[in-house]
Amino acid sequence: MGRKLIFVLVFLFLMFPALTVDATTIIKVGRDINISKNQRVDSAIAFGGQVTVSGLVENHVVSVGGSVVLTGDAVVRGHVICIGGIVVRGNGARVYGRITEVNASSFFAAVSPVFYDDAETWSWLTDIIYICFLAFLFMMALMTAFLFPRPLKTIISTLEKNKVKSFFWGILGSLMIAPFFTLLVFSFIGIPLIPLAFSIILLFFMFGFIAASALLGKFVLKKVFRYHHPSLVRETLLGLILWWIIGRAPFYAGAMIEAVVMITGFGGVLFAVFHRDSDGDNRRQPAFPALK
Description:
6-stranded mixed β-sheet; disordered N terminus
C-alpha cells in the first residue's frame, strides 16, 4: 500500500507541473516559482525550475536542477537547498536556516570570465584541478588504509568473493540515488538530511574505489612476486596507480572501465554493509563494527 501511494503521488507531480500541497506550499515540476514581494508561502519546491523569492517563506526553499534567487526583500525562516544550481543572495536577504548548494559548477562559473577564450589557460587550470584531485584521492587512500584497515579489508574480501553481486548492487544503488533524494525532499523532515546523505553516498563511492584499487594491487603483487608479504598501504597505492594508467586508455575505454570499477566498488560497500551472513544464527555482520 505504501509503495502504491508513493507511485500515485509521483504520477500526480509529473502530470501537473504546478501543484500546491496546501494553501501556502508550492511545488512545481519543470517550471519556475516566483514569490512576489508581498506574498507569503509556507514552502517552495521546484524540480527543473528556478525559485525566485522576494517575499516571505516560512519554512524551506528547495530547488533540484535549478537555481535559487533571493532578492533583497526575501525572508526565509527555514533552510535553502539547491542541488544542481547556484544560490544567488541579494543584499538585505534574510535566511534564518542553512544555505546548502550542492554544485561544483559555481566555481567554474566564477572563474570563467577570467579565462574566457583562453584555451591554453583553461588546459592549465584543468590539469591543476586534476592533479589536486589525484593528490586528494591518494591522501584519502592512505588515511583509509591506516585508520580503517578492518572495514577496508572487509570490503576487499566482499569484492573478491562477490564481484558479480557487487556490480549489480552498485547498479541498483546508483539507480536508487535519485528517488532517494526525491523522497527526502518530499518528506520535509528529511530536507536537512540531504547534505549528510550526499556526503555518505560520496564516501561510499570513494571507499569502494579505494577497496577495488587495493584488490587490484594485491592481485598484481601476488602475480609478480612469488613471496608477497601483504601490505594494505602498498597494495592500495599500487592499485590506484594502475587504475590511473588504465583510465588513460583511448576511445573512452579507460573511462568506461573506471566507471564499472566505481559502480562495483560502491556495490561492494553496500553489499558488505547490508547483507546477512548465513552461518547459522543469521546475524548481521556489519562492515563498520564501530558504527554498530
